[in-house]
Task: inverse folding
């Protein structure tokens, strides 16, 4: 087929992502925030000069985009599709041979709650997806999601707008296989809106220099009352 991507093109993108420093840069940008080259150099563990070279190659391949603000240049992932590809690679890597090293506090925080590009991931996000499904607000199947009429009412009361015309080309609700929980969390416009609303209400806070999200006591109560999050969501057995 004429519109199929060639094997050479796929291999080139994979080669760009496969470099350790570039993989660390892309992983840092999975938090959804724009970062400077200096911040990315620290995350990648390489010099600023080396980071600039990596960023130039990633931008040329349209894996990242640059935003200029005054004298500063900020970098983001180029699209949700790039984030999806990275998340898929993380899921595959997490299911590979076990690395024999202890899980530190930072890893535990990421497993509990983190950003996955523009939506929430980790045990909190999976528990929210489970709760919305159990209460009949969302129906998930084969990677896609349907928001029911009752779900629309509940989400509207929560302050989530689901009918933003400017985002109409993006799926309303889809699933992401959570790399740490190995079960789906919510993505698409709904997933992004839930994260935005939780940040606005200060139910979660972004951790410094990490993709981790810190759940506040107000968030613990709020997610329970507004979205039915069960009290034992941290230690409940996986379905």
Result:
């Amino acid at each position: 087929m004429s519109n199929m991507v060639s094997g050479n093109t796929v291999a080139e993108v994979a080669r760009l992502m496969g470099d350790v420093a570039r993989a660390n840069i892309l992983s840092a940008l999975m938090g959804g925030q724009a970062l400077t080259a200096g911040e990315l150099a620290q995350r990648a563990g390489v010099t600023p000069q080396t980071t600039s070279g990596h960023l130039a190659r990633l931008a040329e391949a349209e894996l990242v985009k640059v935003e200029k603000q005054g004298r500063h240049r900020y970098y983001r992932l180029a699209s949700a599709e790039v984030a999806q590809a990275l998340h898929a690679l993380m899921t595959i890597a997490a299911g590979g041979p076990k690395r024999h090293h202890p899980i530190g506090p930072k890893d535990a925080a990421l497993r509990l709650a983190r950003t996955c590009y523009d939506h929430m991931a980790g045990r909190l996000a999976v528990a929210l997806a489970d709760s919305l499904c159990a209460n009949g607000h969302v129906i998930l199947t084969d990677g896609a999601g349907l928001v029911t009429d009752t779900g629309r009412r509940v989400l509207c009361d929560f302050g989530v707008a689901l009918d933003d015309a400017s985002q109409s080309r993006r799926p309303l609700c889809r699933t992401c296989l959570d790399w740490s929980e190995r079960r789906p969390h919510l993505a698409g416009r709904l997933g992004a809106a839930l994260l935005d609303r939780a940040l606005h209400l200060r139910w979660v806070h972004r951790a410094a220099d990490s993709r981790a999200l810190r759940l506040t006591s107000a968030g613990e109560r709020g997610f329970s009352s507004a979205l039915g999050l069960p009290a034992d969501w941290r230690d409940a057995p996986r379905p």
In short: Residues 28 and 43 are 7 Å apart (CA to CA).
